[in-house]
Each structure stands twice: as structure tokens, then as C-alpha cells.
């Protein structure tokens, strides 16, 4: 039966996976896509074996380094739900990209390697989710390996991340002695390494096995049972409300690689994960089932598919329904335009979108119109969604074209790649020399690689080291304040800023020029 508009919106589940590299994000994503029928073979996401177009692995550099550099979107249907997974780069140099992606989701899945516990990158990403108050579902992975004790992992969640937890299931042993999980939620045992028809064993009202099974005699099972009793008595209560506001995380133990516990996780996740939520705008909250179409650009990516040489603006739909050819207004400029070329994302192909509602991600072909953070709407009144987090670059390089004959490609490449937002472009005031700023070194490497491969422009990069960037209002600009320790430059919007050599130079400058107001964008957003 065809769903009505509200049912369509409610069936959307849009999330990102947050984790430290190597915790198993790719493996879990792949298993989820397999369940959803979006891919047919393991190995597709990483593109190792099949040689097909690999969604989260489209850049050569990514393969060379074995890291996921770019975010992308994967979509599948399961059990009447439309699931959108937004991939996030694991490498810390790309955290800015990841943070913006987290603005576009309604919930997050946090993967933890059972042997490593909570790692640095997870903490950072967790904080962003926390700040937004979105629900976080935890998957403790690699139970087929010897790891930390489950109770220890739970206390790490509470102590390191400061979030309450509720184990939805509990492991029975681990590593070589991993027997399965005690499913507290569905009141059954899910056996590891067993015939499919015996995978689930029911529990009676006292939480004991209702059927004869060799597990009953095992001391590992007894210990798990004792721990579950302890959790029942002393653990947190299950609370849907706390899950919804991000105060409590449901915890699932499993093993992505052996596809154990993943399906139960997916089904339970879909049950409790939020559908698209209202979003704050300058005109108040926008309801996901409001009639007018609205959305915001959270990512721009050039040359998604090198064969097509296109650039795509990723739009999170926040209300209404997308229709091909519809007219929208770009709030920043007030300009009206027709959305005729668009795409939705699947794991193994990019197919043309026909129906997309709140929660879905739209890819709009972009000829340079959009900026990150832009709002588009079909409504009469232009609205603007909340600002996306912006990060001040800390590392800077001077960049020039190696071959003066290739200036055209060089300029085109720089301007297009800068639009993606991972790297910032500055120019010196009079000579207009190019300076690039980024949060991490890897971004420069990727930039150099892409300029060469996608624009056929080789570059020279001269490191300027780390700098502290502070913006200055136009009326206060005085070029005599510029020196080698406080270099005055302009950004791509022609706003002026100083690049201070270090914090000391910044303080010294401020002492000497107390009337000059220096602006740190991190503090104003
Ligand atoms: P990531 O995207 O979070 O970086 O992690 P990824 O899925 O690539 O997994 C990292 C490594 O951990 C991979 O092994 C993967 O096979 C392994 N792994 C993932 N889930 C599990 C699990 O449940 N149990 C066990 N034992 N291992 C798991 P690798 O040898 O580094 O890479 P690969 O060459 O096998 O891909």
C-alpha cells in the first residue's frame, strides 16, 4: 500500500556512523547494506574485490592510504523504512567534513572496538552529537575477539563520555569462547556459530533458557546470566525518552565481520531511532511534514565521479517533498531557480531521484551557485536554517602552479575545490598570492593530488607552518599593522584577516593595539 506523505516522512531514518578508524565502520556499513539489498557482495563498500564503483572509496588516494577521506550517502529500504546512512571520514584531518555531516542526521551509531574501548576520534565525534542532543546507539564490535570485559566497557561509556547506557543485549563469553548474546530486549539467546534454525533460543520468565541446550551447562553462560541479573538490579532503566534526547545510549554487542548481532541491531535501531525531527530556522521551528520544501547544503563535493566531472551539493531535506523541476529560492541570494538535475545515492549506483522527502539527502548538480550552509526553500518566505560549525584553519601553505602555462586549470581547480569547504583560500593583499589553510596536513595532500588528477595542474606548495587566524572588521583595517608575524590577508569573500605566527604574536599584537577587535569565527558560531 502506498504511504501518505506523513507516513513517508516517518519511515525515514537518517544516521551517521561515528567511530575511531579501524573499529569496523566499513564492515558494519556493508552488512547493513547487504540486509537492505543495496549491495550484493561483501567488499563492495571498500571496493577491494569487486572492482565496481565504490561509494566511500572513490578517490585513489583513499585506496592508497586505506582511509575513508570523503563522506558519501548510502540509502536502502528495510522493513518499510527508508534508511539513509551518511558516511563520515574517519581520519581526524577531515573532522570538519564529519562535523557538518553530523548536522544533517537525526541519530548516530557509535562503533566501539571491544579490545580498544573508547578512542580519541570517537570522543570528539561523540561530543558533536551530544551538543546536538541527537540519539546515539552504540555497537560494541569484534566480540569474536578477546577484548575488554563488558562491564568495563560500560563504565568507560559512563566515565569517559558521560552518557548513561542500557545494554540491549549481553555477550556470553568472547573471543574463542564467544557463545552468543543474551538478548534482554527480545528475551532470547542468539547463538554464535550455529545452524540458522537454532539461532534464537527463547528464555522463560525468569530469564533462563526455556529449552534444553548445551549452553545451559556452560560456566560462561552462568557468568553472563549473573551479570544480566546484576544489570537488572543495579543498571540503568530502559527509557525511550532518554534515548530520544541523547541522555542514554542503547548498547548492542556483536561482531560485524561475522555478521553476528547486526540484524537484531538494525531492527531494534529502526524501532527506536527518530524519524526526521523539526529543525530550527530564523523563522522558528520547521516541521518535517510541513508542506513547503526546505533543506540545507551540508557538503559540496567536486568530481564525485571522475568520468562525469560534476560537482554536487548535498542537501538535507528538512521539510516538504522534492519534485523534479520544482522552483526554489536560495535564501542567501534571494534568487529563484529550478531544480532539474538531481540525484539520490545508493551504494552501488547513483540513481536519479524521483521521490524524496524530509530526512532524505538530495544531490544537486552545482555549477558554483551553492555554499555550505545555504538554505533552499519552495516557500514564499525565505528561511535560513541554523549555521553549521566552522573551523578556523591552523595550517597554511603558499601555493603556485608549477607550470605557468597551466594557470587556467590551476585557478579553476583551486576555486572548485575550495567550494567544498575542506580547504580555505586566502590571498595576500596586493600581490594576490594564494595561501591555503586547512585543519590538517592530509587535506593539503588530497588537494594536491586532486588538482593533478582532476584538473591536470601540478602545484608547488611552500609550508608556512601553523598560524592563528583572526578576522578584522573593515573599518579597522590599517595595512601598517601587517608584518611577517601578523600577515594581513583576505579570504575568498574579501574579508580581511591576520595570520599570526603564534598565540604569543597574537597577544603581543592585542597588547599593542587594544582598540583593534579581532574575531575568532569559532567563538561566534
Ligand atoms: P573502519 O571502517 O572503521 O576503519 O574499519 P573496517 O570496517 O575497515 O575494519 C577494520 C578491521 O577490523 C578490518 O580488518 C576488519 O576486517 C576488522 N573487523 C571489523 N569488524 C570485525 C569484527 O567484528 N571482528 C573482527 N575480528 N574483526 C573485525 P583488517 O585486517 O584491518 O582489514 P581488511 O583487510 O580485512 O579489510
Automatic annotation (TrEMBL):
Keywords annotated in UniProt: Cytoplasm, GTP-binding, Nucleotide-binding, Protein biosynthesis
Signal peptide stretch: none
One GO cellular component assignment for this chain's record is: cytosol
Q: Which GO terms describe its molecular function?
A: GTP binding; GTPase activity; translation release factor activity, codon nonspecific; translation release factor activity, codon specific
InterPro entries per the UniProt record, alphabetical: EF-G-like_DII, EFG_III/V, G_TR_CS, P-loop_NTPase, PrfC, RF3_C, RF3_dom_3_sf, RF3_GTP-bd
Cell compartments where the protein resides:
Cytoplasm
Does the entry feature the keyword Membrane, yes or no?
Answer: no
Q: Give the chief site where it resides.
A: cytoplasm
Q: Which residues form a coiled coil?
A: none
Which positions bind GTP?
19-26, 87-91, 141-144
> Which BP terms from GO are recorded?
regulation of translational termination
**Xref: Pfam families:** EF-G_D2 (PF22042), GTP_EFTU (PF00009), RF3_C (PF16658)
Transmembrane spans: none
Q: Where is the Tr-type G domain?
A: 10-277
**UniProt similarity note:** Belongs to the TRAFAC class translation factor GTPase superfamily. Classic translation factor GTPase family. PrfC subfamily.
Summary of the function given for this chain in its UniProt record: Increases the formation of ribosomal termination complexes and stimulates activities of RF-1 and RF-2. It binds guanine nucleotides and has strong preference for UGA stop codons. It may interact directly with the ribosome. The stimulation of RF-1 and RF-2 is significantly reduced by GTP and GDP, but not by GMP.
Q: What is this protein called?
A: Peptide chain release factor 3
Organism, as annotated: Falsibacillus pallidus
Amino acid at each position: 500500500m502506498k504511504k501518505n506523505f506523513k507516513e513517508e516522512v516517518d519511515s525515514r531514518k537518517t544516521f551517521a556512523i561515528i567511530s575511531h578508524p579501524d573499529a569496523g565502520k566499513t564492515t558494519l556499513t556493508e552488512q547493513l547494506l547487504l540486509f537492505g539489498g543495496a549491495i550484493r557482495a561483501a567488499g563492495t563498500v571498500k571496493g577491494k574485490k569487486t572492482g565496481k564503483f565504490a561509494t566511500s572509496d572513490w578517490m585513489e588516494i583513499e585506496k592508497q592510504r586505506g582511509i575513508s577521506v570523503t563522506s558519501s550517502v548510502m540509502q536502502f529500504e528495510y522493513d518499510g523504512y527508508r534508511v539513509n546512512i551518511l558516511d563520515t571520514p574517519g581520519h581526524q584531518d577531515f573532522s570538519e567534513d564529519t562535523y557538518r555531516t553530523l548536522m544533517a542526521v537525526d541519530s548516530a551509531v557509535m562503533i566501539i572496538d571491544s579490545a580498544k574501548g573508547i578512542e580519541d576520534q570517537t570522543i570528539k565525534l561523540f561530543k558533536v552529537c551530544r551538543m546536538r542532543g541527537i540519539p546515539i546507539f552504540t555497537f560494541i564490535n569484534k566480540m569474536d575477539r578477546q577484548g575488554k570485559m563488558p562491564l568495563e566497557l560500560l563504565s568507560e561509556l559512563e566515565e569517559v563520555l558521560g552518557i548513561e547506557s542500557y545494554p540491549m543485549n549481553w555477550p556470553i563469553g568472547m573471543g574463542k569462547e564467544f557463545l552468543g548474546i543474551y538478548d534482554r530486549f527480545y528475551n532470547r539467546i542468539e547463538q554464535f556459530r550455529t545452524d540458522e534454525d537454532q539461532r534464537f533460543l527463547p528464555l522463560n520468565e525468569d530469564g533462563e533458557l526455556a529449552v534444553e541446550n548445551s549452553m545451559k551447562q556452560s560456566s560462561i553462560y552462568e557468568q553472563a546470566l549473573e551479570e544480566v541479573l546484576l544489570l537488572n538490579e543495579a543498571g540503568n532503566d530502559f527509557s525511550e525518552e532518554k534515548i530520544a534526547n541523547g541522555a542514554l545510549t542503547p548498547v548492542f554487542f556483536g561482531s560485524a565481520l561475522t555478521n553476528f548481532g547486526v540484524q537484531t541491531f538494525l531492527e531494534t535501531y529502526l524501532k527506536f531511532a527518530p524519524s526526521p525531527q523539526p529543525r530550527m530556522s530564523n523563522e522558528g521551528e520547521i516541521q518535517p511534514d510541513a508542506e513547503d520544501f526546505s533543506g540545507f547544503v551540508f557538503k559540496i563535493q567536486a568530481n564525485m565521479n571522475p568520468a562525469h566531472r560534476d560537482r554536487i551539493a548535498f542537501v538535507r531535506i528538512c521539510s516538504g517533498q522534492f519534485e523534479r523541476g520544482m522552483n526554489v529560492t536560495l535564501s542567501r541570494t534571494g534568487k529563484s531557480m529550478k531544480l532539474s538535475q538531481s540525484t539520490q545515492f545508493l551504494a552501488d549506483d547513483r540513481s536519479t531521484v524521483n521521490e524524496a522527502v524530509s530526512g532524505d539527502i538530495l544531490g544537486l548538480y552545482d555549477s558554483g551557485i551553492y555554499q555550505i550552509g545555504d538554505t533552499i526553500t519552495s516557500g514564499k518566505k525565505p528561511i535560513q536554517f541554523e549555521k553549521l560549525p566552522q573551523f578556523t584553519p591552523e595550517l597554511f601553505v603558499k601555493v603556485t602552479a608549477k607550470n605557468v602555462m597551466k594557470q587556467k586549470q590551476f585557478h579553476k581547480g583551486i576555486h572548485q575545490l575550495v567550494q567544498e569547504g575542506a580547504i580555505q583560500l586566502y590571498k595576500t593583499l596586493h600581490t594576490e598570492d594564494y595561501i591555503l589553510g586547512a585543519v590538517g596536513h592530509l587535506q593539503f595532500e588530497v588537494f594536491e593530488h586532486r588538482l593533478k588528477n582532476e584538473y591536470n595542474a601540478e602545484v608547488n606548495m611552500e609550508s608556512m607552518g601553523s598560524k592563528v587566524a583572526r578576522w578584522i572588521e573593515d573599518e579597522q583595517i590599517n595595512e601598517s599593522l601587517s608584518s611577517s608575524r601578523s600577515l594581513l590577508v583576505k579570504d575568498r569573500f574579501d574579508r580581511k584577516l591576520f595570520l599570526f605566527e603564534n598565540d604569543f604574536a597574537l597577544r603581543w599584537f592585542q597588547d599593542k593595539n587594544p582598540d583593534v577587535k579581532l574575531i575568532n569565527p569559532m567563538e561566534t558560531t
